[in-house]
Predict the structure.
Amino acid sequence: MGRYCAFLGTRDDLATVMTWLVLHKSWTEIYGTLRVVDAHRSGCIAFESGKAARLMLLEPRPPQNDEEHDDLCARMRSAWAQAWQRWPDRWASVEVVVAGIMPQRTNAVLAAHRTAVYDRTWIVYNLTAGGMESMIRPLFADADDATPGSAFDATPPRQRAEGTAEPEPTGNTAQVHYGQLYLLDGAAELPAFEVLQTASVGLVGVEPGAALMVTGLHSGTVGFMVSVAVNAPQPELDAYEDVVEISFESRDGTASLVGWAGEYSRDLPSLPAGPGTYRLRYHARGMDAAAAAGHSDVPIDEYLVQIWPAPPSAEVTLKRTSQQCGYWQDGARHDG
């Protein structure tokens, strides 16, 4: 299969390409008009709007050895810490742009830290779909194993970006980006990512009217079911690998399942006790396999949320099996 392999350009060339893609193709509806805030810092560009910020680490080539792998992972962790410090009141994300295909083990570390990767295939496809093929030539050689230009035909078949809108979730699935979903009441804003660091259960963080839930999959389709009950249901410990509980406040007696950055919203049944405090029990299975995959259009990991009226009570982990659950309970809350 034809592939663009040799990187010809500089980090500045890659920054130019990604700036065009962000401003013209990538989530402009969510972020509004973005601007470069730190284009001169070596290897990193950042974009911000009134509500969000995104940092992109630019990699002219994938890591070639252990030292380069460790260096990239360290820079990624540092970027997250700087993002939270610089934009404490905004939605922040860290992403890696690589002029090649990232090694599997590096992908796994980045996925565990909810860091998106934009690789050679993504860049070629989106520039081609946007009619900007001329921007590819400064970045990549023609091909090392096929005739010039064949990489345009060899990219994975996908619908054009302007085709159909992001699908809303069905009753048993949901679409995720950056491994995140929310439960919001009618008055809630999207919670900041740091809310996870306030909860010992790791997989869920809450603030008044809002809960942030993490998934193993970085982006794509997950299995997702929500059950609203009058009384406490039995936890499904045999069917799921990880099960945690936390108290959740609905200030108006409603709750909706909301996608990343508010991309979609699905109303849930009216909460039976109206405004007040509820118990949220989050079941998960398949998180490790989904985190390793990164992206999937069919569910790899599956989740069940049980909600019922209950007074505020301590957070509790009923079952912990996956490495992902361990990471969110132990690692992510301490190392940023």
About this structure: The radius of gyration is 21 Å. The CA atoms of residues 13 and 287 lie 36 Å apart.
